Amino acid sequence: AQTVTQSQPEMSVQEAETVTLSCTYDTSESDYYLFWYKQPPSRQMILVIRQEAYKQQNATENRFSVNFQKAAKSFSLKISDSQLGDAAMYFCGLSNFGNEKLTFGTGTRLTIIP
Amino acid sequence: DSGVTQTPKHLITATGQRVTLRCSPRSGDLSVYWYQQSLDQGLQFLIQYYNGEERAKGNILERFSAQQFPDLHSELNLSSLELGDSALYFCASSVELENLQETQYFGPGTRLLVL
């Protein structure tokens, strides 16, 4: 069985500052994928970033980057230059290769302070 | 816009009733996934279909069933509804590529309220 843990139910950050959201996971598979999805008040699930476990290089998408520590089974999301539009619930997700279902954490609610 | 469509957006019904949720995947995507998001259970995988065939099952109740049609749209049927079935139901789709796990793109969801 695979599990995903997000230990920060809520986080807040000043606009233009940097914030890091934490995620740890557990899987017995060696080939897997990690994702961060954003869920704004509209409730739409929007992909933020993905990381393949076999890649050592951390994924980056504009202001969003991850710190992937495979040995520690940790996958944190860093948001730089936070903007008001970043306010949302953020879900960390895991899927094993060949078993595509996504297992999600409980989410972190991010508030941006103007 | 992810390209995945779901209808209806909202559904209000009574306990004991049956409803059908519909999903159209992104053009070219063969896989469809259904997820349930509720306050007490979080986001949970229900079932996956690939090109018309059931591929994987999660925590899906026996009262729930799904199918994927030849045009690749999918329907999730919920019957004998209970108050606890009130939730946001998401459909997601992905393309299948050999040796590569593709990203799932989510539809806007159907919000079901059982009274």
Description of the structure:
The complex is a heterodimer of chains A (114) and B (115). By secondary structure, chain A is an all-beta fold. Chain A contains no helices and 12 strands. Chain A has strands at 3-5, 10-14, 19-21, 24-26, 32-39, 46-52, 60-61, 64-69, 74-79, 88-96, 99-104, 108-113. In chain A, the strands form 3 sheets. In chain A, strands 2, 5, 6, 10, 11 and 12 form a 6-stranded mixed β-sheet that branches. With 115 residues, chain B is an all-beta fold. Chain B is 0% helix and 52% strand. Chain B contains no helices and 11 strands. Chain B has strands spanning 5-7, 10-13, 19-24, 31-38, 42-50, 53-57, 64-68, 74-78, 87-94, 105-106, 110-114. In chain B, the strands form 2 sheets. In chain B, strands 2, 4, 5, 6, 9, 10 and 11 form a 7-stranded mixed β-sheet that branches. A 4-stranded antiparallel β-sheet of chain B has the order 1-3-8-7, with no helix packed on it. In chain B, a hairpin with a 5-residue loop joins strand 7 and strand 8. The N and C termini of chain B lie far apart (31 Å). Chains A and B meet through strand 5, strand 6 and strand 11 of A and strand 4, strand 5, strand 9 and strand 10 of B.
> pLDDT below 50 for ≥5 consecutive residues: which ranges of chain A?
none
- Largest protein interface? A-B, 22 and 24 residues
Tertiary shape of chain B:
globular
Main sheet: strands, sense, barrel of chain A: 6 strands, mixed
User: How far do the termini of chain B sit from each other?
Assistant: 31 Å
Any key phrases for this structure?
heterodimer, A: 114 residues, mainly beta, B: 115 residues, seven-stranded mixed β-sheet, 0% helix
Describe how the helices and strands are arranged:
The complex is a heterodimer of chains A (114) and B (115).
Chain A: E1 3-5, E2 10-14, E3 19-21, E4 24-26, E5 32-39, E6 46-52, E7 60-61, E8 64-69, E9 74-79, E10 88-96, E11 99-104, E12 108-113
Parallel strand pairs in A: 2-12
Antiparallel strand pairs in A: 1-4, 3-9, 5-6, 5-10, 7-8, 8-9, 10-11, 10-12
Chain B: E1 5-7, E2 10-13, E3 19-24, E4 31-38, E5 42-50, E6 53-57, E7 64-68, E8 74-78, E9 87-94, E10 105-106, E11 110-114
Parallel strand pairs in B: 2-11
Antiparallel strand pairs in B: 1-3, 3-8, 4-5, 4-9, 5-6, 7-8, 9-10, 9-11
